[in-house]
Write a structure and sequence with these properties.
about 450 residues; alpha/beta; Rossmann fold; five-stranded parallel β-sheet; 18 helices; about 45% helix; globular
């Protein structure tokens, strides 16, 4: 693991962000897609072609791209209730119980969040009505060797708590055309209404535009790979989206008292997600950085996804040694990571100085992995520096506000004169007349 000295060098190297659309696809994906499209197209052009085909051809394009990307021949795209019930037979009772417990905790958290979210109100005829969205599409990603039933819980439950009428989930099938039993059980526990077998840009296109099998949704939420993420950006406007989720990222701020074994484990827990994941240590101790580097190497040899984790650590990971813990906090806030772990002596005090992070995980007993699965808050968090202005997925993402204006004559007289004056100042005499006729009722008959 590389170790970098100083904030400026860190900004120039491992803390330098790359625009999503400029991300270089791995060679094996480029070769496969070049064969599919007949040429080595940039990522955005590939996604646009997929979306265009799905919009024009519907299910036929969805099946064709599903076959091309996953090797699965999927006849019936929608997962039946019988398949969902059968999935329980392939998932151990222990895992089902764990999913249910995690779901209960996520549901409880978001029910409490709902109680404190914006609520409908009216004051002197002016107010707002808060309503849930009618139909939401959930994208549930899959990567080689990883299923992510947790992502199903973390997207579906906040939507259900918000009161969304119908939840539609899209997720890739395996090469045999089957959906992971783990994912189906999680979807059932979370309250997903309909499940379809497709992934990537084609799945996003199907939810955005609708096909013969897939209903069009009002909003698409959930993390995904590069193709799904770029597709979400392309369809925004035709449909709502929660955010553009890039590869996962973690910044660990640690002082000289931190346990290098735990620091390394926290870095690798995120690095094993994806070759493009970011795992960075910010510390005041060169001794700790050196020990963590050695421990990362030791633990890599024990991970089933060690090759992926190594590629992430070597490509976008490393340690930065700075002079003070305050400088580490400022540098971490500037980077605005998805996850920030504070393995320092006084984590609550340091947390007060952190301005930007999707989630703060304070101390050895509050690891980021707990947030991934069962702490309660959704693990769908802002990436790519979006924590500067965005929040984790929650109930608020599934609610919309309708302004309410229902005033009486006194309020009309009070505010109407100002409205008419402003309208005339803007040169909109039709606006002004509409108001003035109401201010002088006798004029409405002339």
């Amino acid at each position: 693991m590389r170790i970098i000295r100083g904030a400026e060098e860190a900004r120039r190297t491992i803390l330098k962000r790359q625009p999503l659309a400029e991300t270089e696809l791995p060679a094996h994906i480029r070769e496969k897609n070049a064969a599919l499209f007949g040429e080595d197209l940039p990522l955005e052009q590939q996604v646009r072609r997929i979306l265009k085909d799905v919009r024009a051809e519907g299910d036929a394009a969805l099946r064709r791209y599903t076959k091309a990307f996953s090797g699965a021949d999927v006849d019936a795209l929608e997962v039946t209730r019988a398949e969902i019930e059968a999935a329980y037979e392939h998932v151990s009772p222990e895992i089902v119980e764990a999913l249910q417990e995690a779901a209960d905790r996520v549901r409880t958290y978001h029910e409490r969040q709902r109680e404190h979210s914006s609520q409908s109100f009216s004051y002197e005829g002016i107010g707002m009505v808060v309503r849930p969205l009618q139909r939401v599409g959930l994208y549930a990603p899959t990567s080689p060797g990883a299923i992510y039933p947790s992502s199903v819980l973390m997207t579906a439950i906040p939507a259900k708590v918000a009161g969304v009428e119908e939840l539609v989930m899209m997720s890739p099938a395996d090469a045999d055309g089957a959906m992971s039993p783990l994912k189906l059980v999680a979807a059932d526990i979370a309250g997903v209404d309909r499940v379809f077998k497709a992934g990537g840009a084609e799945a996003i296109g199907a939810m955005a535009y609708g096909t013969e099998s897939v209903p069009r949704v009002d909003k698409i939420v959930g993390p995904g790979g590069l193709f799904a993420t770029v597709a979400k950006r392309e369809v925004f406007g035709d449909v709502g989206i929660d955010a553009l989720h890039g590869p996962t990222e973690t910044v660990v701020i640690a002082d000289e008292h931190a346990n290098p074994i735990l620091v390394a484990a926290d870095l690798l827990a995120q690095a094993e997600h994806d070759e493009l994941a970011t795992s960075i240590l910010l510390t005041t101790s060169m001794k700790l950085a050196t020990a963590v580097s050695a421990e990362v190497e030791k633990q890599l040899a024990t991970l089933e996804r060690g090759a992926i984790a190594r590629a992430a650590i070597e490509g976008r990971g490393g340690a930065v040694v700075v002079d003070t813990i305050e400088e580490a906090a400022a540098l971490g806030s500037e980077f605005a990571p998805e996850h920030m772990c504070l393995l320092v002596q006084d984590a609550p005090a340091l947390a007060k100085t952190i301005k930007n992070a999707g989630g703060l995980f304070m101390g050895d007993e509050s690891p980021e992995v707990l947030g991934d699965y069962a702490a309660g808050p959704s693990h769908v968090m802002p990436t790519g520096g979006a924590a500067r202005y965005a929040s984790p997925l929650g109930v608020q993402d599934f609610l919309k506000i309708t302004s309410l204006i229902d005033v009486d004559g006194a309020a009309l007289q009070s505010a109407g004169k100002a409205a008419a004056i402003i309208a005339r100042a803007e040169g909109l005499t039709g606006h002004a007349r509409s108001m003035e006729l109401r201010l002088k009722p006798d004029a409405s008959s002339s």
